[in-house]
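Table S5 (text form). Sequence records supplied for joint modeling of the three-component complex.
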Amino acid sequence: MSATTAENKVAVASQRQLIWWRFRKHKLALVSAFIVAAFYLVAMFADTIAYTEPFDTQSARSYIPPQPITWFDADGHFHPTVNALKGKRDPRTFKLSYAPDPGETRDLVLFGHGYEYRLFGLIPTDIHLLGVSNSRPQDALFLLGTDQLGRDVFSRLVLASRTSLTIGLVGVVMSLVLGVLLGGISGLYGGWIDVVIQRVIEILRSIPTIPLWMGLAAAVPNSWTPQQVYFAITLIISLIGWTELARVVRGRFLALREEDFITAAELAGASQMRIIFKHMVPSFLSHIIAAVSLALPAMIISETTLSFLGLGLRPPAISWGVLLQDAQNLQTLALAPWLLVVALPVIVVILAFNFLGDGLRDAADPYG
Amino acid sequence: MLAYLIRRVGLAVITIWAITIVTFIILQLPPGDFVDAYVAQASAMGTAISAGEAAALRHAYGLDQSVWVQYYKWMAHIVHGEFGQSFEYGRPVTEVIGDRLWLTILLSIGAIIVTWGLALPIGIYSAVRQYSIGDYIFTFIGFVGLAVPNFLLALIIMYVGLRVFNVSVGGLFSSEFQLAPWSWAKVWDLAGHLPVPMLILALAGTAQLVRIMRANLLDELRRPYVVTARARGLSERRVIMKYPVRAALNPFASTIGYLLPYTVSGSVIISVVLSLPTVGPLLLHSLISQDMLLGSTIILMLGVLTVFGTLLSDLLLMWIDPRIRLGQLK
Amino acid sequence: MADEPILSVRDLHTHFFADEGVVRAVDGTSFDLHSGRTLGIVGESGCGKSVTAKSILRIVERPGRIVSGQIMLRRQNGSTVDLTTLPTDGREMRSIRGGEIGLVFQEPMSSLSAFHTIGNQLMEGIRLHKDLSKRAIREQAIELLNMVGIPRPSQRIDSYSFELSGGLRQRVMIAMALAAEPRVLIADEPTTALDVTTQAQILDLIRRLQQERDLAVMLITHDMGVIAEMADDVVVMYLGKEVEKGPVDEIFHAPRHPYTQSLLRSIPSVLAEPRSRLATITGSIPHPFARPGGCPFHPRCPDRHAECETTVPAEVEIGENHVTACHLYTKVPA
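The corresponding structure-token record, covering 1032 residues in total, follows.
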């Protein structure tokens, strides 16, 4: 009997329910949704989670390897500590360098004090997620080691995540606007406008993008502020990215135009606007969402690539691409392999967005 | 068929023209005109350019006139094969580019062949053996290819190669062949170095194509003509390989239109990471040092070659699709 | 006319095992095919007719499979084999497909590959079952095209399917089904996608071929008119079960099952009063996951009573070779 009631539910489920059920079945997509949410949470609280200012250079602290955390003390109690650093002067070069001192330890605390910042850009505070007792975090805490200029990698990574993740968002929004506009016009009105827009899309798609981006990005003057550069890069990336979204939107509009329920609405006297917004848009909203979540990783990869090449965001701005620049040559990697850890969040986020987008796309067509 | 041909060629011509415009814009973007840069570079290297010479150069390139004239003069030079001088190297651009362009083409085409060679069987397998362990494994590898940007992959492989295998993965030639003239031994050396960059380059494209092939094949497998073929008594294997695969091959083949630009793009970055003597590192270098004639020429060449390659593949597609040959499709 | 049936289906059950539940596409049907006679299988869309045809040829797609029942085929060499016991991709089953049983499908538009010439596909059908030289196969293919009425067959053989009209394509499909000279022809809605004139031509063709080759024809359709014209015996199906079975005259002149009666009543008649309402069957076909208990037709039956909701009616004989599964008749003394 319970089998038939379950079967009954399928027969009368609404479209949204069907989409949700299908999405839920895609376990991977579900997990990815959480991962993406977690990443953006980190981006929102980036300053809180980081504990050292990303520009705090201390050449004496260069290339310190990641600090291991001792979780339990000698008595077996949960007491996380890290080794303090001791300065040593090299007898021949007189250079000061720091190395972990096994004798002295510092307690790892939650919500310790660190550098000052504004939470959400409004509330001034100096509380960070992690800290150390008896010391400033910038002198004692190096969870992922430091880079050549002595800057803490962990904090830079967290703050870079914020930039990279938001560039992706801004870029996608711009692409979305362009894509929906042009794709919509193309699909709705057809005729020669459609032909022209389609040709433009084809032309854009047949040009290799990286050389083009490189050329455009190189033209951004060095004198611009990081914010201006940020916008310019986003603009450049979304100028190519809109084509995919436009194609999806156009395809959907074309298919929908032929649907009987649209003809019915027209015959019933509904206005063009009403038909578009009340009838057509809900129909392909889920497709758009799926396309967007698949376009995001492309944006992130684009920015990372450009910055990695040195043509995108430039120091002192930080993003994943900028951080990866530090890991570019083999000698550096041989000295400080932990610099490559930047690759991890990049890969995880891109994978997560792809699975998420896939799941959404599969679910968006519950009858398909 | 003629209509199709005319359309594709016409589109290619327009695209190339658009590329020249965009490249011209890029050429002009940096502040000041490039004769200024030329003068500055030259004096930095110890050669002085007199005001009269500079003015003559300006006139030759039409820099003292409107944008349209400049464009026209630049195009006129290009059509004659004169791409100008690289300021940094002090030699004609074509000389500086030299072999690198051919190597880029070789790398890209090689990567595409690898991509197809891998994607086709894997795609078919994934569709026919859906949900099997093999399918999941390939899907996973595919996702790696999709998710890891190829320069990152190159970086990681370089690092792993050095630390774990003590092998240096970069470059296309061993040190003794790098500046040597071409010989069979050099070709052999090249062949030995090509597989790793080609594979890295091919991975992302393969992942995408596998998904496309898989999706298309899954669609086709449900169609009536497959049932008809089975009902005729054909073995399952022949049914699949002869009919739905053939049908799914079309959208698959048409992907080369987007695969070629994607691969050429990728080769530029990979070349930078792996220090390959192709066009990539040269382009980056020229853009950073604002050697615009060199940089924009490279962009132009890459664009034109890509469009050319795409056109060729479109013609190939036209040849193998009876529907287009006989005028059924546009 | 052979007395022994050439194909016997006994109590066939084919189910589809989807994530959301089990769809009992064919839920207990039995019938015989005889050489030279046409069996019509009729019912609304979704009642399991096509699945029955696919089950016989063992080409039911996943997630469907034959759960129980027998399909006995008397082969050309005299032996009898139960098709449900053969491996689906085995040599024997493959030789039966096309060689002993031919299938004509309902969508001539998409039942032929667009990338291969019709000759290629036709000759493949011959080559799989006959050992002849390439030239002989081609000649035979041209002869087949001629037989089904394709004009200029020696040129048409190299055409692609999209160069032919729907009617011509269907003729090619029939030629392909008969290419290896099977003794059974299953035609699944062969005329549904065609216009009325072409329909008549195709049906004539099938009838002629049946006479010439003494074919056993199984004709699947939802069109009672086609049944009246072509069938000798009829099986009426509803939701995978057969509800009435008998000679065509009996079914048309003395239908017993309320569903059969409704089907016949709903045929628009030339002789009807103008502006009178078309008769319909109340309600609609239930969702496959929401099958009614008891008799599957009871929610829409004008003659239902209490017993119909709880018990599945068994088949009873109500005339010569005429059976029905309905509680109205179960009390008829044997």
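Note: The longest strand of chain A covers residues 96-119.
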